[in-house]
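Predict the assembly for these two chains.
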Amino acid sequence: MPDPNSSGTPTPRVRFAPSPTGFLHVGSARTFTFNWLYARHNHGTMVLRLDDTDLERNTEASVQSIFEGLRWLGLDWDEEYKQSERLALHRKQAEAIFAKGLAYRDFTPAHAADEEHSSSQGAWLSNPGMRELPREDSDRRAASGEPFALRFRVPRGEGRILQFVDGVYGAQQKLADEVEDFALLRSDGMPTYHLASCVDDADLRISHIIRGQDHLTNTFKHLLIFEALGEGVGVAPPHFAHLPLLVAPDGTKLSKRKHGPVVSVTTYRDAGFLPQAFVNFLCLLGWSPKNDREFLSLDEIRDLFTLEGVNRANAVVNFTDDDPFDAKAVWLNAEHIRALPVEELSRDLQPFFEQAGFHVSPEKVAAVTPLIRERIKLLRDAVPAADFFFLDKLAPYDPAELIPLKKGDPKKQDLTGDAALALRVLQTALEVLPATTFDHDSLDKALREAAVSLGLKAGPMFQPIRVAVCGRKNAPPLFETMVVLGREVCLERIREAEKNLQSLA
RNA sequence: GGCGCUAUCGUCUAGGGGUUAGGACGUGAGAUUCUCAAUCUUAAAACCCGGGUUCGAUUCCCGGUAGCGCUACCA
């Protein structure tokens, strides 16, 4: 790691600050990923901070599920904090801000405030009665135990302009008069998000805040808080960079309530996404390497990642009712599956077979993996793609499948004649196979020779055997499949097929 | 309502004062193969609208429209 003092710019410190109110959301996963990329690209520090100041909604189960999701992504972090353990600091800072006269106590009961705000036509900006309440009255009421919220005293009537340069959206400014007197402390004494987050960002010396664009306008409030923090002139605010939001096809922000499990990273994991594929997909939503490449490894993304590459428009995650996954995510997953060494893929596949009830040896899975690798897009596809390798007895299938169809004209099928042909194919296979070595080349040679002797092309020759052996028409290449299955299983299944075919005729 | 942000194929995006507006996914067609898949070729598919500025705007500016976000004692 470079010495922060050796260059003009210190190494960045970024943070990901989820609030544990449910499972890890794909939007959160992307925010985490972008922070991680920024940190690792710049040799900085990644901080994970649980923003759990909302006691009502936070649960331990959610904390666990967020960690689970983050671990699955395979991205690490360097420091870890829990906001709820830092309450003393938040309160102390709130008091300091109050002591400076930059905040005031608002004794309006919470529910009453709600009504007032919603009934007022224009935007609610402040509570003049409370903002102007003399200090002695305020102290007296507080001392008597009357509950109050602490509100920031936003500068008014001064024409004060709040401004910052966003790393993605560029120069931003807003009149302070248009910012409402937001709460710092709730009436139960707990800090709000705005206060806790800024206090912690300052205390943890966060240099860059990279977060969702839904915080863009909140940033003006945060600027005010940073200014109110610390001794004299306040604390220099960190750099801000806001990320375009991930939205559903209906254009609204992805939400757990509205869009269900499709917004949870565990849904992707359970369906058999590879974490690197998922991360690859996430990065392409709102960021571009600008080199026409889309299939990228994590290392490549990390090397290419810059804030300049971040787009400003919201990105649609294109799922439907029929298919919960964006087609591009699925395609990328298939690409990453093919890029994986067989041993690794085989290891990743094992739990999916187990879960489907196939208690099969790793050796068997390893043998099957190369045969299905190009035929699956999600890891879970491996189960239906490979089940016939593991079944003792094939599931019943339509014996008519054993009969090869003539191309282009399935209706003019001479069913009985073709059935007889298929039967001869199977019988021939039964004659040839016992004497054939079960490796690819020998099977290839033996069966092709048999085809010639029957006056058949490869297609009509192989289909009956394939269906007999796999129980269906679409399957991996025949010879490799037969090798994995072994001679005994193949012969047995072909005999069974022969029986089925005879019963048909 | 107020304030802010955004606007290129169906989706993700590149681009940028003069281009045949590029790529990817998906979709259609074809090739190849023992089926499927993979692969290859190919087709259809976009600059929100209106004004400016300019010799020339999709690109710059303004306005409109639309979408999104914030407007909580949620984060």
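The CA atoms of residues 319 and 325 of chain A lie 5 Å apart. Chain A is about 45% helix and 10% strand.
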